[in-house]
């Protein structure tokens, strides 16, 4: 990522791929040796440490996530760092999520840290 606009465009493409439920488009953003940490890994995959390693495991995890009823990501903001993007978005549940992506030199995710806010009912 060279500019904040590049980071925004990357994050917007990530949200769009999720909203279209396009697993292949999502996975294009991820390196083969990706590491992912999320509270949902604990609940969805039964991994007490919250970590998944490797593109195949992340693909399996995302495939389950794509089954969420009413799935929708609304991009709220993007923070831009050195080889890092922090993507803030709102889920269909009303929860705010912050995903921190560490990228390789080809702008593919090598590490993802997902942080979830409270789930609130939308009015």
Characterization of this structure:
The chain is of the alpha+beta class and 123 residues long. It has a single domain, classed as Nuclear Transport Factor 2, Chain: A, CATH 3.10.450.50. It contains 4 helices and 6 strands, in the order ααβαβαββββ. It has helices spanning 4-19, 23-27, 39-45, 55-65; strands at 30-37, 51-53, 73-81, 84-91, 96-103, 109-116. The model has no long low-confidence stretch (mean pLDDT 93).
Shape: globular
Reported for the largest beta sheet, the result is: 6 strands, mixed
**CATH topology descriptor:** Nuclear Transport Factor 2, Chain: A
Order of helices and strands: HHEHEHEEEE
**Strand composition percent:** 35-45%
Reconstruct the topology from this structure.
Elements: H1 4-19, H2 23-27, E1 30-37, H3 39-45, E2 51-53, H4 55-65, E3 73-81, E4 84-91, E5 96-103, E6 109-116
Which terms would index this structure?
123 residues; alpha+beta; Nuclear Transport Factor 2, Chain: A; 32% helix; 6-stranded mixed sheet; globular; 4 helices
In brief:
The protein is α+β, with helices and mostly antiparallel strands and 123 residues long. The chain is built from four helices and six strands; from the N terminus they run ααβαβαββββ. Helix content is 32%, strand content 36%.
